[in-house]
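Aim 2 progress. For Aminopeptidase, the working sequence is reproduced below.
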Amino acid sequence: MALLHLISFVLMATAASAVPTKSEDAAAEPKYRLPQIYDVQSYDLSFSVPSDVFTGKSDTYDGTVAVQFKFTEAAGNISMHADPDFITLTNVTFNNIALQPEDYSIDNVTDILTIVMVKPVTAGNKYMLEIKFAGKLSTTDMYGFYRSSYKNKTGDTKYLATTQFEPAHARRAFPCFDEPGLKATFDVKVDYPSGQEILFNTKVYSSSTDEDAGDDDRLQDYAPMPTYLVALVISEFTCTSGATIDNTTTSQVCSRDETKDLRDLAVDVGPKFLNALSALTGYNYSNDMSKMDQVAIPDFAPGAMENWALVTYREADLLFDKNESSNRHQQSIATTISHEFTHQWFGDLVTCNWWSEIFLNEGFATYFQYFIAHEVFPEWELDKQFVIEKLHSVLDADESSNAQALQSECSTPTEIGAKFGDISYDKGASIIRMVSHILGHENFVAGLRTYLVNNQHKTATPENLWDALATNVDNTISKLPNKLPTVMESWIKKSGSPLLTVTTGENNEVIVTQEPYGDGHNGTQWYVPVSYTTSTDKNKFESTSPMVWVTPDKNSTTISLKDTSSWIVLNNQESGYYRVNYDETLWGRIKQALSKDDFDGIVELNRAQIVDDLFSLAKNNKTSYENVFSTIEFLEKDRSYYSWYAATNGYDFLLTRVGEDSKLGQAISMSLMMLMDDLYDSLPLGSVNDTDQIGTLKQVLAYTWMCRVDHTPCINDAKKLFSEYKQTNVRPDKNLRSFVYCNALKNSDDADDWKFLWDAYTNASDLATERSTIISALGCTRYTSTLTEYLNKTITDDSGIRLQDAASVFSSVVTGTPEGVDVAFAFLVGNYQTIEKKYKSMNSLSSILTSISERFTTQEQVDKLKEFIEKKDLPAELKSAGAEALEVANSHLAWREKFEEVLLDVFDVSSAIKVTTSVAFVLVAVVLNLRNMYIFVTWTSSTVVNKFLLEELVLNSS
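Predicted structure tokens for this construct:
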């Protein structure tokens, strides 16, 4: 299941964050797991979906499930799952013996259906349980078997029925053993009205049509899989066929007919990715499946879902207009497809035994979404983008004392939902990437092939993976400091990451030691693979296999340098999952190397690593901010997208913590503006061809940030392009729209600008990528009443904001402007009951509250949060989330209190303007009334500062 591709926002950090859950009574300690005594073999399912469902008049259907299974030990009861909010049992038989209603019951909290046997059953025998039931389609969320709708080109409302079962919502559609470890085959029969088309995991193998009853399709049996992968779409969608897979298997992309021209990208890349995965794994997709359908659903909760042979997506994550959708959207769609297709092997063919090990599914999918797509689009440099987009972000997340281990226990729906986050996805992928570098690509791939063959059609544990990789390591295994399962144990079972500290020793040696990094990880030790490059052997940056190890039993190691002035950089290409700090002497050598025109051979990924590590080390008080800003002076001449991506992430943390409108925030903004000016000037509008993927991403990054820090030329460009759009109704360049829309609204004094963009949103009904861009931009206005109106659309029926996009609206408001944080919090306080009712999920409300509090920067905001938690009659789940949010907000204020004076000193800022340039310049600044202007020369050239600020003065005075 793909995480949503939205702007950085804690609310959307996990695709499962808004998964509906039921009240969990901690005191009662309900048991959510089934007894591990079942060998489930097959389901025979029958659904009858009436025509009224597709006119919007009904949300009910009838069903029958016959499940064949064995007990692995004697038992007196059967325990399985059925959600009583959606399933009503009408008849139950066991081995052809009818049971009475008093023989079975459903727990309203755990959804466990308990059936009491007339006499105990024995192990090893086959049993048949048949249940007839009345089902209810969900119409208030997008889980289980649910109904969605859309407007066709004539304005008529069309309805469809579709599914989203992961992680635990198959039980909403039919009674079942709803756990990932219980795989079975499925034979499905569906009655549905004529005029609709049906898609299932497999092809239809028999079909009949009755003029009155409609169509009756039977869908063929296939390889065993868990219930969460069963999928069904009944709709009026049309499809476009693509190339065959493995020369035998068909492929197609399906969606609303109005969007048929937007399927080309998915039609093209889908078969390429599947063929590449078949070749890499040595296990052909066609071994199990005879087709691959990709379907865009108008309302869909996650970004996408890996149902075997029937992958479902949000429209914005599948449909692409080459003339209107940005390069970023193209890349996002392609990597989402490769993520879901990777799951056909890692998740579908071989499934994690329980959700506690979901990284076996999601870690591989996240890893290969970059590296398989890199094979098809090498010019996108996705192997490098992985480092800045996934590795850096999850290293930050893993610092928290609340971070989970990759393999950690979970039982309740909330605990399971929490596993679907950046640790399972991004840390899982980063650890897998590290293992590939430890073993070498050929050994790694051979091990994966063994893993898939050994566990095909079954479930697996991390131990199965390490055993398979170890059997194919050959010569590499002798280089490991211990057996592979032992080497990997701390990486999987402990949260956090190591910090390696490099200090100068005697005789040109440096000493490398490890310690746990971040909060709450004391005592953990790892087997850390260390690669490195020195100034006397610069070609080693391409060598990512371990050169030395730091181990738990020997917590330090030494490396010899060839001369007394040599620099050393650890973690070549940032192939290992750890951060690196150096002593003052070694930082000084690195700083001197980076100051050279060619950075003395230090490659761009390691420059990005140095920048990312520096900002992280400073925020955790492991190095000084003086060291950070003096070292990153090299960025003034660096044109690498990767270095700058890392730098802007570091600046984003600082601005979020101190507040962009504070004096310190303005100082930090100005420092970035000065540092980025040459990069910005090197990328004038119209200079980058959209065939240059990295150049395009770099230009968007530069313009987004220069506008964010109030660079006048950038803002003027945004306003000019938006004005032209209003006058001509011709949209700006597809790659520039995000920065144009947002910054035009942020700097607009015309309230009609927001309405114009809202109208553009409503008119782009068939272009999901454009709608997602506009949703993100509409929260950039500084008109607080307009922001409140925008948020109100998320709880208003027929407002134009789809259910799936409500969280994106909150994200837009909270991140768009400093004012948006207070507006969003006030809206939540005033409407939390309506929000909870609208989305039927306390997790949604809790996530919104947590995300807002993440951006609190003042004591007044924290006091209001405390008042809300204490004085309102809140549901227990929200009160608990509020307490956690308050803890986070207080920790952020404590960080600011600790570092604010330090940063003020770094930038030489106080409540009064500090100037080191000429008095004449100050007088000019006063005369021109230059708003919020500070002049900093603490860590950069005063000549550069004066030249830069004089240009700003001229622009601001005009």
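Residues 612 and 765 are 39 Å apart (CA to CA). This observation will guide construct design in the next reporting period.
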